[in-house]
Design goal:
With 557 residues, the protein is of the alpha/beta class. The protein is built from 13 helices and 29 strands. The strands form eight sheets. It has a seven-stranded mixed beta sheet. A seven-stranded mixed beta sheet has the order 23-20-21-22-14-17-24, with no helix packed on it. A four-stranded antiparallel beta sheet has the order 4-5-6-7. It binds adenosine-5'-triphosphate (ATP) and magnesium ion. Adenosine-5'-triphosphate (ATP) binds next to α3 and β8.
């Protein structure tokens, strides 16, 4: 299948390579994989890799595996294994067959290590870590040979078997590939293939006390799974030599010879993506957890109201290249705003409530009004809202005096209550502190649903909720987590946290929201997109994103 047939997506260098490989007959179909290490929760950077790997498989009718790269048991945990599966599935992707684990192949890795030893291409080295560093040389100086480099094949085989049998202490020796101590690529200077760790593994228990290094395990896992295009981020560019060297020197397990291609990782402004830093945010309780809605994690974005569609669309918008750059947060937010603008049901919520009394409306009366669920999409139907003598509006929507740019309620002037009547502000009362307490209005009973009414020019429309039916709710307003575009670079990244990344407000929502479904975003008219929190009891709404791009300064009156 050619790129043109493959879909609407913009082409990129990886698609070009796949097109060529399919056209030349090198591969009949493509096989990719997403290989997370289960040592943390997935973030939006991983989403880029997921959308790329699974997206290619979808578009070219190939397959994509989900493989846990679990060769580092001390940092891994089943909690992460579970969360990663949940996140990939939530994004809407299906992995091919069973979930794979690198640890499924531990025995194969070991047999390949024996093969390399047998060919005189690997040796057991007893230099300690510091000595190894010394022997490795520098970028400008070649390294020198380990004294163990020329141990006989038989002796090495014997030593490797002893390593596996647990006859050496942790750190006493390692298995190294015998490549080139003078290579300009440091990763080729006899890299470590296996190290000793007396550590139980979440999948294999105590079966092993030697664990393969990433570079050794990854290429062989790809080969075992018949991966055609092994996509990783640019920091592995040099390691491609090692990837190829290993596959060139073992008996390949399948006819498919995987190739590695590198693309640039996603960096997002005003957040961090390094797992070490994300762990720190969680452990130091700078956020409430991995799924804190301010976190760039997939679980955080989900809790905040992001949709799978919006994240996939974001991945399409940023594309794939080899250029390292920072992506603006506004691109991610535009993707979710565009999706929610079309799909989110409309509703009304008042975040900063002040009481408004309509004095010519009968006491003890409320009337139902049918309001559209989505003004541009009649198919979404109607919802019932209530109108009555007392309503709440936002305090910011009333001024005693204002110039003509203020299109909301001004003393002595008219405004329309969204989906309802035109009202006129007659007077107001302040409390003892001089804060606005109550606004008194009159309404025009002939103006329901008409706009403009009776030839009267009422430009402003404000949102509101009827007081006796309104349901109290809390609103969590999120802002950028950090105050600087590249917090990863900051000496102390805790010092550049934004102290106002969360502001909590108490207000009211329409009664229909009393049983809002968590994670499902609504547009609160004039306020932004919100979804009910999936963890906290009661009615708590997280602001997904505002209605406009607030990264560029908003107009203020
Ligand atoms: P570490 O290896 O330090 O634990 P990692 O971010 O590389 O962290 P992995 O679990 O190894 O985490 O990543 C799984 C896959 O996701 C890899 O193929 C990796 O290249 C890709 N990936 C990770 N971070 C990003 C990012 N910011 N942008 C794009 N792809 C990423
Ligand atoms: Mg990694």
């Amino acid at each position: 299948m050619s790129q043109a047939e493959a879909g609407e997506r913009a082409t990129n260098f990886i698609r070009n390579i796949i097109d060529e490989d399919l056209a030349s007959g090198l591969h009949k179909s493509i096989q990719t994989r997403f290989p997370p290490e289960p040592n943390g929760y997935l973030h939006i950077g991983h989403a880029k890799s997921i959308c790329l790997n699974f997206g290619l498989a979808e578009d070219y009718q190939g397959q994509c595996n989900l493989r846990f790269d679990d060769t580092n048991p001390e940092k891994e945990d089943l909690e992460y294994v579970g969360s990663i599966q949940r996140d990939v599935a939530w994004l809407g992707y299906e992995w091919s067959g069973e979930i794979r684990y690198s640890s499924n192949y531990f025995e194969s890795f070991y047999q390949y290590a024996l093969e390399l030893v047998g060919k005189g291409l690997a040796y057991v080295c007893f230099l300690n870590a510091e000595q190894q560093r010394e022997y490795r040389g520098t970028l400008t100086e070649p390294g020198k040979a380990s004294p163990y480099r020329d141990t006989s094949v038989d002796e090495n085989r014997n030593l490797l078997e002893k390593m596996r049998a647990g006859e050496f202490k942790e750190g006493e020796c390692v298995l190294r590939a015998k490549i080139d101590m003078a290579s300009p690529f440091m990763c080729m200077r006899d890299p470590i293939l296996y190290r000793i760790r007396f550590q139980a593994h979440h999948q294999t228990g105590d079966a092993w006390c030697i664990y393969p290094m990433y570079d050794f395990a990854h290429c062989i896992s790809d080969a075992i799974e018949g991966v055609t295009h092994s996509l990783c981020t640019l920091e592995f560019q040099d390691n491609r030599r090692l990837y190829d060297w290993i596959l060139d020197n073992i008996t390949l397990p399948s006819a498919t010879r995987p190739r590695q291609y590198e693309f640039s990782r996603l960096n997002l402004e005003y957040t961090v993506m390094s797992k070490r830093k994300l762990h720190q945010l969680v452990n130091d309780r700078m956020v409430t957890g991995w799924d804190d809605p301010r976190m760039p994690t997939i679980s955080g974005l989900r809790r905040r109201g992001y949709t799978p569609t919006s994240i996939r669309s974001f991945a399409d918008r940023i594309g794939v290249s080899k250029v390292d750059s920072f992506t603006e947060m506004s691109i991610l937010e535009a993707a979710v705003r565009d999706d929610l603008n079309v799909h989110a049901p409309r509703s009304m919520a008042v975040l900063n409530p002040v009481k408004l009394v309509i004095e010519n409306y009968p006491e003890n009366q409320v009337e139902p009004i049918q309001a559209p669920i989505h003004p541009q999409n009649e198919d979404m139907g109607k919802r019932e809202i209530w109108f009555g003598r007392e309503v709440y509006i936002d305090r910011e929507d009333f001024r005693e005096e204002a110039n003509k740019h203020f299109k909301r309620l001004v003393l002595g002037k008219e405004v329309r209550l969204r989906n309802a009547y035109v009202i006129k502000a007659e007077r107001f009362e302040n409390d003892e502190q001089g804060e606005l307490k109550t606004i008194y209005c009159s309404y025009d009973p002939d103006t329901l649903g008409k706009n403009p009414a009776d030839g009267r020019k009422v430009k402003g429309v404000i949102h509101w909720v009827e007081a006796s039916k309104a349901v109290p709710a809390e609103f969590y307003l999120y802002d950028r987590l950090f105050n600087v575009p590249n917090p990863g670079k900051a000496e102390d990244f805790e010092a550049v946290l934004n102290p106002e990344s969360l502001v909590i407000k108490q207000g009211f929502v329409e009664p229909s929201l009393a049983d809002a479904v968590p994670e499902l975003a609504y547009q609160f008219e004039r306020e932004g997109y919100f979804c009910r929190d999936n963890k906290q009891p009661g009615l708590v709404f997280n602001r997904t994103v505002g209605l406009r791009d607030t990264w560029s300064e908003q107009t203020k009156y």
